[in-house]
Amino acid sequence: MRIFKFFVFGLICASIAFCQDVNQQEKAVAAIVADWFKYSHPDVLLTRILKTYSLDGKGQKSQLKLVSVFRDKPSSKDLSMAYAEEFGFKVCDSVEEVLTLGKDTLAVDGVIISTEWCDYPVSPTGQVMYPKRRLFEDVVKVFQKTHRVVPVFIDKHIADNWQDIIWIYSTAKKMKIPLMAGSSVPVSWRYPPSDVDTHSKLKEIVGISYHTLDGYGFHGLEMIQCLAEQRKGGETGIKSVQCLTGQDVWRASGKLYDESLLNMATCMVRKIPEGKTLKDMVKEPVLFVINYNDGLRACLFTLNNFASQWTAAWKYEDGKTDSSLFKLDDNLSTLMHFANQMQGIENMIITGKPAWPVERTVLTSGALDALLISKSQSGKLVNTPYLKISYKPNWKWKQPEGVPQ
Predict the structure, then answer these.
(1) What is the per-residue pLDDT across 318-360, written as a single tens digit (0 to 9) for each?
(2) Any idea what DSSP says for residue 253?
(3) Going from the N-terminus, what domains does the chain have, and what CATH number goes with each?
(4) Quick one: DSSP state of residue 401?
(5) For the chain, which end, N or C, has fewer CB atoms within 10 Å of the first or last residue's CB respectively?
(6) Which residue(s) pair with 197 in the sheet?
(7) This prediction's pTM
């Protein structure tokens, strides 16, 4: 009898160990990139799967396994061939092959699409036209052919125009494809570690951005939206947008934005030299104005020659204010804000549930398209009834571990 009990106990232990091994098994991932070169987005994201999250082989190991890569526009700087030889993944000639590995069935558990920093044509409104819809369509065709879907992450914005944005989003919903996109800025460090109070009505947000309007302006919009969506009642969608430039930006003070909030946001960036004003330092300001359906207004300033970080200040209906600097890791050897983003991607692929709402990036992508249309029309107000997208996020910001460099 005792021998039988030991036998049963041994079977149970073996079963538990087997289940643990299955649960801990690495998930196979396919990467669809434009060009994988040093410090490109594919490099700062995908290399963490190969070389641990700290990129030095000593950090946290990923639970993902990169099995295949498709390159849409590789250059002489491409690293994927050398990495394929070192780490054993396959470089493929088509999206179908990268997902099936040449077989009749889907061979991966997740897909990462990252095309940033590659030379593609620019739209009339100034956006780089990355082939995100084309690549996503190719992924969908394989899903339909194999009768199986897996999570998909699209790096940064969903697409550069509303037609492609809504097609990708609607197709994912229809086919029940877990879809996630967006910037690394929302998951970065914050100093002070502030967030919008979910129990309070929000009146206004003022944010600071810099550099390009499409690439970096998108990051600024993601910063704005990850705050806005936390307000009491959740997200209600965007009613209209407007883009002002030059002296029109300063003339809008007190009409479209609260200058005290702008001062709060700029103070976290740098001190204005004595005898100077922000107007003196920024000769070509750009202002993105976002009007939400519930009355919230957000203003994102691009202040080149002054700002080199993203900051935000916000005011509640009761007059209380708060602010924070969204801090990234400036150390090129680590760039750990991308590790924070990659952790969210990994969690989605493992669980099948997006780590943050894709609706956030549907709104920021659509708003950016409309804002640049407004800019091309000399600051005309653009109504956006199609951005009436409501959601309550299941995501809540937490201060990441460690300290950015």
Answers:
(1) 999 999 999 999 999 999 999 999 999 999 999 999 999 999 9
(2) B
(3) 25-182 (3.40.50.720), 189-328+357-387 (3.30.360)
(4) S
(5) N
(6) none
(7) 0.92
